[in-house]
Amino acid sequence: MGLGAFLSGSGAHGGSWRHPQADADASLNFQRYRHYAQTLERGCFDALFLNDNVAVGDLDPRVLARSSYSLRWDPLTLLPALAVVTRHIGLIATASTSYNEPYNLARKFASLDHLSEGRAGWNLVTGLVGGENFNHPEPLSHAERYARAEEFFSVASGLWDSWADDAFPRDKASGQWLRPERMHLLQHRGRHFQVQGPLNAPRPLQGWPVIAQAGSSGPGCELAARCAELVFTAQTDLQQAKAFYRELKERLPAYGRHAGQLKIFPGIAPTVGRTLNEAEEKYQQLQELQNPQAQLKALSYLLDLGIDLSHLPLHAQVPLLDDAAPTERHKSRRHLVQELIRRERPSLAQLLRSLSASGHKVLVGTPGQIVDELATWYQEYAADGFNVLFTHLPGAIDDFVQLLTPELQRRGLFRQRYTGHSLREHLGLARVENRFFSHRGNG
C-alpha cells in the first residue's frame, strides 16, 4: 500500500498547537518542515502533501483566536526548499485553478519537478475560499469552478508537452542550442483562457507532475476520472469506501484509462499507543485541548449549514440538517457529515470526536489494531493507500514512523526502502507520454 503525509499547521486536530509535543509555530518555521520531511522519508512515505488556501477563512473572532491554520507559507515556495534537503519523498503542492493562471502554474510545477529530480505533484483544487482577494466578491458557482478547472488542466498539461525530450541538443560544435521543429505551440483559445505557448521551461522529468485531486462530488469525480492519478478522499465507513473506490475506477474507461492509472488514498488520523489504554489517553488529551464552541463554529462555517451549532449544548443530539439550503461550499464533505449524523444520531460532543480530523477516519489503538484496519481496507479494495493526517506535529509523525511503519513492513504491506526515485515510481505510475510528439520521435 502507499502512504501520503498531510501537513497542515501544527497538526490536523483542532487542539494540536496546544499539545506539549506540538510545534505551535509549525506553519511558519522552515527548520520544523525540514525535520518533518526527513522523518517521513526515513519512514519511506510516498509523498508529503501541503494543503493551501488563499485566504484566512472564517473571520469570526472566536475561531480566529484559537486556530493555528490562519497563516501559512505558499507551498510552491516551500517545496523547492524541501527538495534540497530530501532525496526520495514526493512533494505535492495544493494549487487552485480558480485563482491562478495555467501558464504561471505549469511553469512552477515544471520547475519543481526538475529541482526535485522528478518528485513533484499537483493537488488540483477548484478553490472556493478566497475569491474576495482576487476580484471575485461573490464566489464562483460549483459548476463554473469545475468548468474552469477542466480547461485549466487541459491548458497546463498542453504546456508541459511544449517540448520533445530531444528538443535541446545544446551542440557547441554546430552552434545549435535547440531544435525549433521539436517545439509545439499550444495556441489555445477557450472560454476561460487564451494561451499561445510554448512553455519557457523544459518538460517535467516525469512528463507531467503527478496529478492529485480531492473532490468527491459528481463533478469532482468526473474531473478525477479525466485527469487525476491520485485521489484524496474522506471516507469513514468501509462499505461506502468500497463503493466510492469501485464507482470512481469504473469512470476511467470513458477517458481511455484503466484502474491502475488512478490511486485512491482515503484520509486517516491515527493515534497510536503501545497499549489501547495509552492510545486512548493520548487521544483524550488532544480532545481536552480543543475549544468545542470554536470547533463547532468553524464546522458550521465550513459546511455552510445555515445554523450555528456552537449555540447548542454539547450533550444535545445533532439536528439532522436535511433541510439545510443548497451550498456551493464543500458539497461532498457536507454530504459525508449529513450521512454520519443520519446514521449515528450523535450528540455534539460525539460529532466533534468523529470529525476531529475534518471528517476523515479517526483510528485510536495499538499498532496491531490500526494496521488490522488498514489491511482490511486495502485488501477489500476500499483503498490503494492512505493519506495520513497527523494529529499533532511532530509527535504524531514520530509515533507513526516508530510504531506503525515497522508493523506495516513486518506484514509485507509497505516497502522496506525506496526502490525508485520519482514520485511516479513510488506510486507505480508510468511517465506521461508527450501527446504532440510520438514516443519514437521523442527519443
UniProtKB/TrEMBL annotation:
Known EC number: 1.-.-.-
Record-linked InterPro entries: Diverse_substr_monoxygenases, Luciferase-like_dom, Luciferase-like_sf, NTA_MOA
Lineage: superkingdom: Bacteria
Matching Pfam families: Bac_luciferase
Family from the record: Belongs to the NtaA/SnaA/DszA monooxygenase family.
PANTHER family in the cross-refs: ALKANESULFONATE MONOOXYGENASE-RELATED (PTHR30011), C2H2 FINGER DOMAIN TRANSCRIPTION FACTOR (EUROFUNG)-RELATED (PTHR30011:SF16)
Name of the protein described by the UniProt record: LLM class flavin-dependent oxidoreductase
